[in-house]
Specification:
Structural class of chain A: mainly alpha
Order of helices and strands of chain A: HHEEHHHHHHHHHHHHHHHHH
Number of strands of chain B: 2
Number of strands of chain A: 2
Oligomer: heterodimer
Number of domains of chain A: 1
Helix content of chain A: over 70%
Distance between the termini of chain B: 65 Å
Strand order of the largest sheet of chain B: 1-2
Distance between the termini of chain A: 17 Å
Number of helices of chain B: 26
């Protein structure tokens, strides 16, 4: 057993360590890269050693609970996948955009954003909560604009900052009303006040603004409009990180809010949340139908996935949180697997569906992995994505949101349709001889293999799922 | 004491090794080295046999139970992977792995120079694995796993030479007909589960439950479902064991290599139905009505198949019909609650039928694939050892005194008379069937080994005795078919080893079935004498009818005229009862799907596409518009929630 603060502290110092080492090492040295990978791995292992029984508190407002530990593990793993995926983009140019620079700083920024997510998870008052969310978002702006020579990336970053600022403004407004309503910054006191006075207009205005604000971050309808542009414009690794880490932080934000300070009015919020979830996944699915660019397609796919995630929030506490954690793990595996494959594709091909033509002939390994990733995202048994979706629905079913679940399941048909369209390009369409030959390096092979295995066995071998449930119900 | 799971493990390892050999050599032209492959193929069945022997020696009376782990653990159903090694599974396993090993050795010679040598033995090992699971499983579900596994292997091996369309069709037929029976097995399990939960799938738990319900008197409540379950299980057995009405696949299954016919379609797999009845004996004795159905289905099958056997020209088809007929005898025995006798007949039948099939295989092998008996004859001098084996098998199957079949068939006939409903009548038909058995088997022996050779000249030149690897298993099996019967020689006092071995498993059920039965006491010598008489009369008829020139063969070996309509009667029945209605329903569904559902699907798809276009129109790139759209959308949602909030 280790002290519960140790991983957090290590994670906080890791970016500084990386940047410092970068200063004192030769220009092409890979030392910072190894330190980042090694450090994140160590932190991940340490996180698995924290005792999960009670909620740890540090200085009364830094809290490490069961959900927090699980999400920490998830965020650190996602950061590890993110930087592993990014590495290639610093070695060569891809998708006709220039090569990226400053790997060490890039990794430091990713880890900073991860730490921001951890602050959100540890918050027990409004200030820390807000600080964490900003800390998780601001590095993302920088990451989006990382490729200074790419004008589309800069445009995307500008858009992101503008919309993000609007979102922040909404949240601050909501927080201030919440403070005005309850007269306290502490979650526990707010929760008590909410129970006492659940229909106060002040409270509801604050709820409305808070949900709108986080709706931007979680790309919920109608605040999703920025996502396709930003996802398309940002460098591919940043798109991957955005669609996993940023989304995970946002959904934890919502769950902490709903199961924390606002728990007293969860039932009253349910219609609102279910409407948001339903429309979001419908719009995301419809939007994805007609896309032909891979990243824009993934943007819509991740919009609809946000809708699915929000469905689980409607369920009872333990079930909702454990199903969200499990789904996030599986979603991250599937998403990163897809992105790894797209990364291989766009190294010397334009990132459109057409570049996938004849993939099954050229590289059966990639084609099978792609099928695994997309079928998992679509939720086809026996892949892990199926079990993930099933649990999200199961969680909502415990609170009797059957109409929403039916709607979501019908939407799955739509989702399957557009995921299969990609597979059609890869498996059915005739090969295009004008495409450049694919180059897969060892790291990509290993990651693609590992992630495929994880998705294949994530549902069939029940330990991941079981462990999450056991920890949440400890 | 060695663990139980070694028994199925060995063939499983063999399967994996051979599959790897087969796959890794799939690109080479002449295939893997036969010596190594053959050694592997024979080694694992023998190891499995040795473990069975080791376990058999020290087995306590109540058997050995071992659980490896949990198989299914859900709220609705909990099943362990557990093995049950008792008197019944011991005797089954002994001859399954023993004869399996012998036939594996024989196959090394038989499959010599076949390109798919390794694949063949991978299937054989997989079959032995499935069969041991079937017999060793301590719950119906695990038995069902083996049940399906042997079905799969049977399919794979019937269609082993898959370049010939006829073989693959035969494989398909076997598989599909078996699946029809499997529905019965599945529904039977479902019945048991709905009576008392998934715990009843375990044999021990089922027996305990039945005993408890019987003593409490609460059994009558469950009686309708229990009877249904019994009937459904029996339906499953008719599929696997080729009884009326699901028997048509077995003659066609002769398309597979002959060792396969010997192992799967004579000695082991087809008897798994009899095994299941014996395993569930405690259930079946409670439902005498179902047992009567079993009895009459067995009787009809035995009689019908014996007559059909008379018309066949293909040597393997004769043996196939005789297998069906003998299986009918086994079911008759089970039908009068003489489960130990039925298993005894399974045991002796395994020896002599395997010997007959392997002998037939040697004949076919030396005639380079000729199976039509009208083109054989006079092989006695050219293949004396094979003839000896076949004649031993022949004497055993017709029940010649002293040979294996004599003892087991005699016991069955005796039990039919003593304890069956309408005993004397059933006995008479069964005895008549025994006469016919002797006739058609005599016909086979005479047409194959006596008279003059009638085949082609080029075949005649190289008729030869089989190689040693084939001969030794044949000879061992013929010894078995001569002496296996003495394990339970009803006429010799004290020679009841076999009955005592099975008594802990089926004894209680049988004595329950005999309750209140005032058995007519007749001397066993009368039955023995009548049985012997039947065999001798049958032989004499065969001698009189068939020791004359055989008409020259023209066309295929299928029977003609009355023989054809008799042989294919059940094919016709399946056509009218099963296939045509299915096709009609399929046609209807096809039309409905095409016109209505597809239209509806296209309509929905079209609407979705239009909606998608609409959403795409909102893909504005200006930030101002994006923000504005967000606010408007938020306002709309808020209003919606305010108005309709409660309904969502």
């Amino acid at each position: 057993m280790i002290h519960f603060l140790l991983p957090d502290i290590l994670l906080l110092f890791l970016p500084f360590l990386i940047v410092t080492i970068r200063l004192f090492s030769p220009k092409r040295s890979l030392l910072p890269w190894y330190i980042a990978v090694f450090g994140l791995s160590i932190i991940f292992i340490l996180l698995n050693c924290i005792s999960v029984g009670e909620t740890h508190l540090f200085l009364s407002n830094w809290k490490v609970d069961r959900f927090g530990i699980l999400m920490r593990e998830f965020l650190v793993l996602a950061a590890l996948m993110g930087i592993s995926f990014s590495k290639e983009y610093f070695n060569y140019s891809s998708d006709f955009t220039p090569r990226m620079h400053q790997l060490s700083e890039f990794m430091a920024t990713v880890i900073m954003a991860t730490f921001g997510g951890i602050v959100v998870l540890s918050a027990s008052d409004l200030l820390t909560f807000f600080l964490g969310l900003e800390l998780a978002t601001i590095p993302m702006y920088a990451l989006t604009a990382w490729n200074k020579k790419d004008s589309i990336g800069s445009e995307a970053a500008t858009k992101y900052i503008l919309m993000g600022s609007v979102a922040t403004a909404f949240e601050l407004f909501g927080f201030s009303y919440l403070y005005g309503f309850s007269g306290s910054m502490l979650f526990s006191e707010i929760a008590a006040k909410v129970v006492l006075n659940p229909s106060s207009p002040l409270l509801w205005i604050s709820v409305l603004f808070l949900l709108s604000g986080i709706g931007f971050k979680l790309t919920l309808f109608p605040f999703h409009t920025w996502a396709p542009d930003v996802y398309e414009g940002a460098p591919t690794p940043v798109t991957a990180i955005l669609s996993v880490t940023s989304k995970a932080v946002a959904i934890s934000f919502v769950s902490i809010l709903v199961f924390g300070p606002l728990y007293g009015i969860k039932e009253q919020m349910a219609p609102f949340l279910s409407l948001l979830a339903g429309i979001t996944l419908f719009v995301g699915n419809l939007g994805a139908l007609k896309q032909y660019k891979l990243r824009r397609f993934m943007a819509y796919s991740s919009i609809s996935q946000a809708g699915y995630l929000l469905i689980a929030v409607l369920g009872p506490f333990e079930l909702a949180l454990s199903s969200i954690v499990y789904y996030l793990f599986i979603y991250a595996f599937s998403n990163f697997l897809a992105f790894f494959i797209f990364g291989v594709i766009e190294r010397n091909r334009p990132e459109t569906f057409d570049s996938l033509r004849g993939l099954s002939k050229e590289s059966p390994f990639l084609a099978v992995a792609l099928a695994i990733a997309l079928f998992s995202l679509a939720g086809i048994p026996p892949l892990a994505g199926f079990l993930g979706k099933f649990q999200l629905f199961y969680s909502a079913a415990q609170s009797h949101h059957y109409i929403l679940i039916t709607f979501a399941i019908l939407n799955n048909v739509l989702a399957l349709y557009y995921y299969i369209q990609i597979l059609k390009s890869a498996w059915v369409d005739p090969p295009d001889s004008s495409l450049f030959h694919l180059i897969v390096n060892l790291r990509q092979k290993i990651w693609i293999f590992l992630l495929s295995i994880a998705i294949l066995f994530g549902a069939m071998l029940p330990f991941l799922n079981d462990n999450i449930f056991r920890i949440m119900n400890y | 004491m060695i663990p139980l799971w070694l028994i199925p493990l060995f063939p499983l390892v063999g399967t994996i090794v051979l599959a790897i050999i087969a796959l890794s050599s799939s690109d080479s032209k002449q295939g893997p080295a036969e010596s190594i492959t053959g050694a592997v193929a024979v080694l694992f069945p023998i190891l499995s046999f040795l473990s069975v022997v080791t376990l058999s020696v020290g087995m306590p009376v109540e058997g050995i139970r071992g659980t490896i782990g949990t198989w299914i653990d859900t709220a609705a159903i909990q099943v362990n992977i557990g093995f049950l090694f008792d008197g019944l599974s011991r005797v089954m396993l002994l001859f399954i792995t023993g004869i399996g090993s012998l036939i594996a050795i024989y196959s090394v010679g038989y499959m010599h120079k076949d390109r798919s040598f390794a694949r063949f033995f991978a299937y054989i090992n997989l079959f032995l694995f499935s069969m041991t699971i079937l017999v060793l499983g301590d719950s119906l579900l695990l038995t069902f796993l083996g049940w399906e596994g042997v079905g799969l292997c049977s399919y794979l091996l019937i269609g082993f030479w898959h370049t010939d369309l006829k073989n693959t069709k035969a494989g398909n037929k076997a598989f599909i007909v078996n699946r029809v029976g499997d529905v019965g097995f599945l529904l039977g399990m479902l019945c048991l589960v709905s009576i008392g939960g998934s715990a009843l799938l375990s044999y021990d738990a089922l027996n305990a439950w039945l005993l408890n319900a019987l003593s409490l008197g609460s059994i009558s409540n469950a009686m309708p479902l229990l009877s249904l379950a019994g009937l459904l299980f029996f339906f499953g057995c008719t599929g696997k064991s080729a009884q009326i009405p699901l028997l048509t696949w077995l003659p066609d299954a002769m398309a597979g290599p002959t060792p396969v016919s010997a192992l799967i379609h004579a000695a082991t797999m087809v008897t798994s139905g009899v095994y299941l009845l014996a395993r569930l004996s405690n259930l079946f004795v409670l439902i005498p009505a179902v047992l009567n159905i079993v009895l009459f289905v067995g009787l009809l099958t035995a009689f019908w198949a014996a007559i059909a056997g008379l018309f066949q020209n293909d040597i393997k088809k004769v043996l196939a019909y005789s297998t069906i007929s003998q299986l009918g005898y086994m079911f008759m025995a089970a039908g009068v609650a003489a489960f130990d006798v039925s298993i005894f007949h399974v045991f002796t039948h395994a020896f002599f039928k395997a010997a007959l099939f392997l002998g037939a295989g040697a004949v076919i092998h030396s005639l380079t694939g000729e199976q039509d008996m009208r083109r054989m004859g006079g092989l006695l001098k050219k293949m004396p050892l094979t003839s000896l084996v076949m004649i031993f098998g022949f004497l055993a199957i017709i029940g010649f005194p002293g040979f294996a079949g004599f003892w087991s068939k005699d016991l069955i006939l005796e039990r039919l008379y003593v304890s069956g409903p309408m005993g004397p009548y059933v006995y008479a038909i069964a005895l008549l069937t025994a006469v016919i058995t002797a006739v058609y088997m005599g016909r086979l022996i005479i047409m194959t080994f006596f008279g003059k050779y009638r085949g082609s000249k080029e075949n005649e030149a190289h008729i030869h005795e089989a190689p040693a690897s084939m001969l030794i298993p044949m000879l061992l099996l013929s010894v078995g078919s001569a002496f296996a019967g003495f394990l339970w020689a009803g006429l010799i006092p004290g020679a009841e080893f076999f009955r005592e071995m099975l008594a802990p498993v089926v004894g209680a059920a049988q004595s329950y079935a005999m309750l209140g039965h005032t058995a007519a006491h007749l001397s066993p010598w009368i039955f023995a004498a009548l049985g012997t008489l039947a065999a001798i009369i049958g032989m004499l008829i065969a001698w009189y009818l068939f020791m004359r020139p055989v008409p020259e063969a023209k066309g295929g070996s299928e029977p003609q005229g009355f023989g054809a309509s008799w042989t294919f009667a059940f094919d016709k029945l399946h056509e009218y009862v099963g296939i045509i209605p299915t096709k009609v329903v399929a046609w209807l569904l096809d039309v409905v799907v095409n016109t209505i559902i597809m239209k509806a699907q296209w309509l929905t798809g079209g609407i979705i596409e239009i909606l998608g276009d609409g959403i795409r129109a909102f893909q504005v790139r200006k930030v101002r518009l994006q923000a504005a759209l967000s606010f408007i959308g938020m306002a709309l949602i808020t209003i919606l929630v305010l108005i309709y909030g409660g309904l969502l």
